[in-house]
Structures are given as C-alpha cells and as structure tokens.
Amino acid sequence: MNAEFPETPEAVARHYDFITPFYEIVGSRSLHYGYWPRGETGGSFGEAQQRFTDLLIHQLGSQQGQRVLDVGCGLGEPATRLARSTGCKVEGITISPSQAAQAEQWARLHDPSGQTKFHCADAMALPFPDGSFDAAWAVESMFHMPDHAKVLREVARVLRPGGRLLVADLVLSAEVTPREQSFLQHAFVARAFLTAETYPKLMSDAGFDVEQVLDVSANVMATFDAVAAAIQEKEAEVRRVYGDAFLSGVKDQWARISQSASRCMGYLVLTAKRRSR
Predict the structure, then answer these.
(1) What is the model's pTM?
(2) Where in this chain does the record put each Polyketide synthase-like methyltransferase domain (predicted)?
(3) 174: domain CATH number?
(4) Which residues are known catalytic residues?
C-alpha cells in the first residue's frame, strides 16, 4: 500500500510551477479540493474550495495572536484567509521558489496588516526553532513528502506542547490495485499515499494525540466532476495558456484519474494536539 516513487522535492516544485496556472483557471488560487455539504451540488469549483478552506479554519480552531505554520502553502490564499478570519499570524512554506514569491505578492495585496509570511523551505527540515508555533496545518501536501513520519516529527518539534495540528489528505482504500496505485501516485506526483488506518498511528508515533478523524470523502470527491466541467467551460483559456495538445491530454487524463479515484480513494481531515515531552 505504501509503494514509493522517485519524485524528488525538485520534481514536485517543477510540477506545481507548470500546473498551477491550470488550477487557477479551473478553480482558484487555493489549489485544494472543493467541499459540498451533504445533499448539495452545483456552484463553481472555486466557491467549493473556499467552503473547504473555511471548514479547515474552523477545525483548526486558531485564535487571534497565535502563530500558525502552513506546511505546503501553495500560492498563499488559504493562509491569508486563515489569518484574516482569525487574527492569527501565519508562516507558510513551499518547496517551490515560484510559489513562495507568488504567495508573498498575494499577501502584499490582500494582507496589508502583514499577518502572513512565506518561505521556500523543505518540510523535512523546517527552518524554525523548537516550540515556535501554536498550531500547524498541512493541506494536501503530505502525500508529496518523501517521509511522512519525519515531516510529522519536524512539525511536532516546532509546535509548543498542546499545539494543534490539522492534516487534510487523500488516502487509499484496500480496494486499490497495484496498477491503480502506481497510476494515481504518478498522476498526483505523490511519494506515497497512506490509508485511513495508518494515519492515526503515524501521528501518535510522532508525538501527537489524535482528537478527531473526519472522513469527508462524500463531500469532496465531487471535485473531479467539478474540475471536468470547469475544463469544458474554460476550454478556450486553457488552450490559450497551454495549447491544444495539453488540453486534449488533460481531458483524457482527468477522466482516468476520476474513475480510479472514485473507486479507491478517500479524504480525511485529522486534528491532533502535540503531547508534552
């Protein structure tokens, strides 16, 4: 279940540098899945992404003046939304220098109070002192990491005792075949996907007490249909930025990803507290 592939941090950075404009076209600068309350459909993918950001902000429970680490900050929109809605201070890291620069530019425009900062850094070796954050979140970034356990230990190191951690991540089910697993890991530029059963123990071993494991698979998997619809709607813009060959390829690839993911992928939001050592 945890077969790994040789995607390096540099490869992940190159992937996002290339694909980020596509996700901005079909969605927003948040670069994560959307969220639809049970029984609801429709609306834009970008709106659903904002709903998911707001849910994660609520689950994290940060307060004014606290210092929060965003592990895998992307273009900085979720971090900026977190800071503005709670009054906390957020520092984000990304392996992509381009993303870090774009996040800083976004913050200058949308965070005039200076509550957010962004750095190009490796989650495997966080450039922060021990106990320097009150909370942290990792939103759809853990599956890119070469060593989940090492990243979790690093996050535990930089959190104060009692500090909160939220992880939002894709997981694989027992129904996945080796061929599907290989395809999905390459499609998502993932080093390894965990299972729902694996995550809580891994977090506990890293020094966290897991408080809640929230399965939001039924709420977020509509992302695949929403992105497919957005590709159709924004076809001309995708073609202008990437060309005909990319547009044709991404349609075919997305259909295959959707089919495999709907069969053997899920999505968890886990919240935990760092134990006192």
Answers:
(1) 0.92
(2) 22-274
(3) 3.40.50.150
(4) 140
